[in-house]
């Protein structure tokens, strides 16, 4: 009986810890990468984000004219890569700015 109670208490403590971790976990900002398949800086930016575990949506503007127009509307630029991090625009692969906006170290 005491073994059963100890196991129950351990399970309850574990559930409380996991719940606390989820509540204190920061939600990642939305990240969109506007890119083309032939752009080496786009590839570097996406690799950089993947290596740091950042989820992002990749938008290929060479295949989607509406996305290309959206890129120009958001950034005022036609070049890639353009990153939209939580509504803030970064033109080019700018590691320090990406780290700052995503609060990476």
What does this structure look like?
By secondary structure, the chain is of the alpha+beta class. The chain contains four helices and four strands, in the order αβαβαββα. The protein has helices spanning 2-24, 40-51, 65-75, 95-102; strands at residues 31-35, 57-60, 82-85, 88-91. Strands 2-1-3-4 form a four-stranded mixed sheet, with helices on both faces.
List the topology elements.
Elements: H1 2-24, E1 31-35, H2 40-51, E2 57-60, H3 65-75, E3 82-85, E4 88-91, H4 95-102
Parallel strand pairs: 1-2
Antiparallel strand pairs: 1-3, 3-4
What radius of gyration results from the CA coordinates? 21 Å
Count of β-strands:
4
Low-pLDDT runs of 5+ residues are none
Given the C-alpha coordinates, what overall shape results? Answer: elongated
Helix and strand string, N-terminal first? HEHEHEEH
- Report the biggest beta sheet as strand number plus sense, adding barrel if it closes: 4 strands, mixed
Question: What keyword list fits this structure?
Answer:
4 strands, four-stranded mixed β-sheet, alpha+beta
Short description:
With 105 residues, the protein is of the alpha+beta class. The protein contains four helices and four strands, in the order αβαβαββα. The chain has a four-stranded mixed β-sheet, sandwiched between helices.
């Amino acid at each position: 009986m005491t073994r059963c109670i100890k196991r129950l208490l351990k399970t309850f403590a574990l559930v409380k810890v996991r719940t606390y971790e989820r509540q204190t976990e920061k939600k990642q900002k939305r990240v969109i990468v506007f890119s083309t398949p032939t752009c080496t800086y786009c590839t570097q930016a996406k690799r950089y984000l993947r290596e740091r575990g950042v989820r992002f949506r990749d938008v290929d503007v060479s295949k989607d004219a509406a996305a290309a127009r959206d890129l120009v509307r958001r950034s005022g630029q036609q070049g890639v890569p353009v990153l939209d991090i939580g509504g803030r625009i970064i033109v080019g692969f700018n590691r320090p700015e990406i780290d700052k906006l995503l609060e990476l170290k």
